[in-house]
Automatic annotation (TrEMBL), chains A, B, C, D:
Pathways per UniProt: Carbohydrate degradation; glycolysis; D-glyceraldehyde 3-phosphate and glycerone phosphate from D-glucose: step 3/4
Gene Ontology process terms (BP): canonical glycolysis; fructose 1,6-bisphosphate metabolic process; fructose 6-phosphate metabolic process
Gene3D superfamilies: 3.40.50.450, Phosphofructokinase domain (3.40.50.460)
GO MF entries: 6-phosphofructokinase activity; AMP binding; ATP binding; diphosphate-fructose-6-phosphate 1-phosphotransferase activity; fructose-6-phosphate binding; identical protein binding; metal ion binding; monosaccharide binding
Keyword Metal-binding (UniProt): yes
Protein name per UniProt: Pyrophosphate--fructose 6-phosphate 1-phosphotransferase
Site feature Important for catalytic activity, where: K124
This protein's encoding gene: pfp
Function: Catalyzes the phosphorylation of D-fructose 6-phosphate, the first committing step of glycolysis. Uses inorganic phosphate (PPi) as phosphoryl donor instead of ATP like common ATP-dependent phosphofructokinases (ATP-PFKs), which renders the reaction reversible, and can thus function both in glycolysis and gluconeogenesis. Consistently, PPi-PFK can replace the enzymes of both the forward (ATP-PFK) and reverse (fructose-bisphosphatase (FBPase)) reactions.
Residue sites binding Mg(2+) per the record: E103
Record's GO cellular component terms: 6-phosphofructokinase complex
Family to which the UniProt record says this protein belongs: Belongs to the phosphofructokinase type A (PFKA) family. Mixed-substrate PFK group III subfamily.
Reactions listed under catalytic activity: beta-D-fructose 6-phosphate + diphosphate = beta-D-fructose 1,6-bisphosphate + phosphate + H(+)
Annotated binding of diphosphate, by residue: G10
Length: 341, 341, 341, 341
């Protein structure tokens, strides 16, 4: 038996740990051949691949990124994409695929299974916004990095009686903001799930200053002020003719400065959150996902995705898996509000 | 209303995060007074306490240890211990207690509730061996530290074609060994749940050397060779008259060296695993435990303990909570065996 | 004998380590009293101070910031500022001062010594731009943090064939950019000491892409493109009426994107570089500075500053110490150019 | 022109950074070929080598260990070793060698130069005990790791009123103990340069307990109690027939426990100190060493070694370089004594 593996979508610590687990278990436990397709769905379309032997996955467990490369190519949006995949798999003698990726990658996996190609999915979203699984790998690493940054910023905030706004990832779901804000002892946490009131934020900030501590405000990149959606859409050009889109972190720091008269600064963590070596938590989760995806292939349980439920790895239908975005529920946000101000 | 909080048993990163959450929620959400009893159950026996205001928990979220101190004092093993506690609580006007600790501390909490004193428990075991909860805080930090050490040791193992044995915590349960071994890419993982065969370990070690990589063997402190329980009990004295008890890590490194003829070294991680700043994961879990313990007190739901189930914090009866040691099940160990050798 | 200590200017990891060393050595080795003046030179002007006993410096060695607070107050710019200081020292019975700070703080220290008040200086500049000393504490920590961020960004750059621009501190001197760029394996390092040619940067970036690796460009916040000084000064307002000043990192990322057609992103590390626990290197250096400053006071060697030369702590005249900005010399920049492209 | 590079002796973070710098500068700046000899001096004896192109050094800057492997082989202790080297270099067309290693490796480098083979040395000693250079790479990483461990142990020491002994590397020189002890806020630092009095150590420990803080004792592996040299030499066998040599850390913890009646534990950091990714400081130093070694080869300045003096990289004669062990001088130890007790 021969299986193929591929990674699609954005960068996420733990991808290589999944690949390694697939290769180790596929070869050592089942005696399969494993080949890696390059650049997401583009690989099985163009035939670009490389054999993955035991040696090829030595030393990748701790590395960020993906040794297979990634892309956002969608075979259903390309003429004859699915037929190309079918031809590649036939030529390579590949019996089944393991596809590691987010909503788009898994959506393709589902349709391919419906079209008769056996695929098992491994969920990947650094934002942790997939309903079918308790957690996804990469999330713990992102929270860890954001928390380390917040820890460092407390010092500067307090030495200079300054408000510091930290913008973290999270366009549609505020999980990274919620967890890093709780872990970092933030004075305010703002998430996309709930538009915030600037006067309320200012009140929390001022209450914090009154207690003689300097506030840290953690804001998800997708959070918006009340009525703010339109405001933030208007980009304009700077002196060099570049279009500037106001990031919410910088915008909020300026608002706070103007309304409180206190110094206020923004730090935008950006891509530092999604690169580098995964945390131990993410390595274990990614490894278990890879091992269990191989089990699903062995069981010919295609059209499924591995998922974490409590401490167990289970399988869920791909059709259910991608149905719904998992956002921060009101009661989890309410938990955090105890620490505001 | 006034509540007391105390910490018992061994050191564990996240204790202060629980205390902070109890204080913040008790004062800010409920308007209660909170006092901290010192040194576990000794505090309510002797009356040693300090008021915990909002200021007293600033700046403790990131700190290891416990600002309340700890002990292994058991009021049921001291004459009149329970009456002393009753008297202290009456004198201090304390209506309920939150007790943070392991099996012993929670066992006392259960009996005190039976004896009419309202206690809510927060579970603490760095070894993660409590059946009633998916995870306990401190465990992720211990795994993180052990994994960082293993990452570093790979280098040395490979540069010198040397076997390295890493002894981690875990007297009765091998969770830290299992998770850090998986995360660190160990060649062999040995746990207390299953006596190991030295010839089998040697075979894995030699297979690893044949692949031209150097083996890392992760061993829980409580793991034993087949028939080894008696062997390890015989301590003898060294040149200074000190009794020497052979740690399993050192013992195993010597066995491997003798049987393979390869250089072999042991590293015993020891107390570095249980001190210092908690990981983001543990800070979030500890904080949520603290918040939910306050809810339980508000609900007068005494004799319960907070626990993690999936992503939810739930309450379980203390009587059930401490009934059973959670050990590594055979199927979780089998997952890891794929990577042996 | 009684001495005072104060910290002035911006935040810098290691300030507390200096204070601790001053207190421990002042009390334990000399039997002096030590008092801490708050908020830089403002403290001795207003009399705001606190006694610094051994207990007050327990547990501060690892903390960022300063337990004394800081300010940019200059007694020579305030009416009667020097007389206020003289009066405070007389009232407090303080015989000499240790002033920890940058160019401004040390400039005041020098003038006060000329005016008959005994001051010893401890140099502090996170940018490492003080000519009289090989290194200053805080610099190694900043380089460490920037390097960790660059390490993480490599992953993302390579997984997505993307150029990443990292903006680090350094308004007038490029030391942090030079060291973190070397340590992080940057493809281009840009410093304030030399205006850069955008076409040259683009050439390096494209050469790097041709080698199939993604480029990381490290740029000091004070670096400028040729002829760029004027361009960057023109701020304009965004949709919210906030003035936007184009940071060089963001500007450069956009230029690279436009000229190469490749995706390009900027990460601005900002205040994360100057907060949090100091590295071991900085703790040792800061501690030795503090100890040696006490020696200088004991020798009544006022008007001097402690400095690192090789592995020795020496004293230099404050008049010489602040004479000259230490910038990156051409030969050090040439060393790094080997790695460009 | 073609040059060879090799690494000898024990593991040390930064070796790969030197190799990378040699390759990048050799190829890009000079247009040379570079080949890597494997396993120290064994490589040029047996002819085992690999070409080092630009690709071969991508991605190695951050890795511990050495991509060339290492050994302790000495051509002057093997029959015809030097002639073998001469033959290999002739066959490979290699004009000069860069040898990265400690006292032994550099001693061979010196003799080979005397025998007409052009060698430039790069000093490597994690213990920092080489007189000719201010610092060597690897040392800062070792101090960093030891300091992180000490930071974590403070928590446990204080929560449990326990003395903790931390054994760090340093057989003949106490630099790692001195720097990590200063950086970690140790209560006692013990080095090989000065035999220690157990009663004095106990006095410091007890004074520390009286101040209500728990003592951390940092001890170099080569430190000895007064009159202790003989005592520690007598090994005996344990129940398994293994010879046990009492490590000084464990021995001292037991002594302290017996003499103070307080709990006392030892942690032996061991090989974790010499593996893994180098600190930014060590990467910069190693990189500069590599670059400057290439300059020395270009200048045909053989028989020299690169060294750090202040912030400059200089060249020193190999004959002088290895003449003397750099131990901790009395005045540096006296600096630290201020913090004892």
């Amino acid at each position: 038996m021969r299986i193929g593996v591929l990674t699609g979508g954005g960068d996420c610590p733990g991808l290589n740990a999944v690949i390694r687990a697939v290769v180790r278990k596929g070869i050592d436990a089942h005696g399969w051949d494993v080949i890696g397709y390059r650049s997401g769905w583009q690989g099985p379309m163009t035939g670009e691949s490389k054999p993955l032997g035991l040696d090829s996955v030595e030393d990748i467990l701790t590395r960020g990124g993906t040794i297979l490369g990634s892309s956002r190519t969608n075979p259903y949006k390309a003429d004859g994409g699915v037929e190309q995949i079918r031809a590649t798999l036939a030529k390579d003698g590949v019996d089944a695929l393991i596809a590691i990726g987010g909503e788009d990658t898994l959506g393709v996996a589902k349709r391919l299974t419906d079209d008769g190609i056996g695929v098992v999915g491994v969920p990947k979203t650094i934002d942790n916004d997939l309903g079918a699984t308790d957690y996804t790998f990469g999330f713990d690493t992102a929270v860890h990095i954001a928390t380390e940054a917040i820890d460092r910023l407390h010092t500067t905030a307090e030495s200079h009686h300054r408000a510091l706004v930290v913008e973290v990832m999270g366009r549609h779901a505020g999980w990274i903001a919620l967890h890093s804000g709780l872990a970092g002892g933030a004075s305010v946490i703002l998430v996309p799930e709930r538009q915030f009131s600037v006067p309320q934020v200012v009140e929390w900030v001022e209450r914090r200053f009154e207690r003689e501590y300097a506030p840290i405000i953690v804001v998800a990149e997708g959070a918006l002020p009340e009525g703010g959606a339109e405001m933030l859409q208007s980009g304009e050009k700077d002196a060099f003719g570049h279009v500037r889109l106001g990031g919410i972190g910088t915008w909020l720091a300026e608002e706070i400065a103007q309304r409180t008269g206190k110094e206020s600064r923004a730090v935008v963590l950006g891509h530092t959150q999604r690169g580098g070596t995964p945390t131990a938590y993410d390595r274990v989760l990614a490894t278990r996902f890879g091992l269990n995806a191989v089990d699903a292939v062995a069981d010919k349980d295609f059209g499924t995705m591995v998922a974490l439920r409590g401490t167990d790895i289970v399988r869920v239908k791909l059709s259910e898996a991608t149905a719904e975005l998992k956002t921060v529920p009101a009661e989890r946000y309410a938990e955090a509000e105890v620490f505001f101000g």
